[in-house]
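Why do we care about 3D structure at all? Because function follows from shape, and shape follows, mostly, from sequence. That is the central idea of this module. The next example makes it concrete: a single protein chain, its amino acid sequence, and then its structure expressed as tokens.
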Amino acid sequence: MEKKITYREFQKQDAAYVADIIKEAWNYDRLTTPKIAKKLSTLYLYSCLSNQTYTRVALENDLPIGIIMGKNAASHKCPLHYRLKLIGAIVSIYLSKEGRKVMKTFESVNHIDKDLIKEAGCTYEGEVAFFAVSSRARGKGIGKELFCSLLDYMKSQNLKNFYLFTDTSCNYGFYEHQGMLRRGKKDTTFHINGEQATMSFFLYDSQIV
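And the structure:
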């Protein structure tokens, strides 16, 4: 049977599927226990949903396989229901010692992102808040379709530029193929589960024409 690909806005029934996409994309199961990995992906999901004005979900036979979220900085207001979900997710993960330990790593990443923005010295009107496609759905043009839909949204909002954060755990070359420019890079070393890992974090941006 031919698989049907459709697109629409994020809906609440998508949450569990998108959280699984996040967990896979960021390799959370390699960082911590399955229980904490699930909580991390839920926390990240509601953090992104609290930071968006646009969502587009790709579905294969009505099941989510990819998502992109974007933000118009001027019109952004965090929806109350997502803020409450985010607070609940934060509390849940900080209740355990393992959760608190893992969150220190993510807090350090947030500091890196803030430094990259500061060093860029640019005021951005738009942001790619989150973008990921399930590994089983890659190579089908779904990522390109989602990215183009966000560009169309930003153009409709008359935004002049936008940015995103990415790192070496992702296919950051995709953004270069879409004409985005790397504006900043920071390398850091993490110690997780007795292992040492060095990663590079990037800031990419683009003018909207």
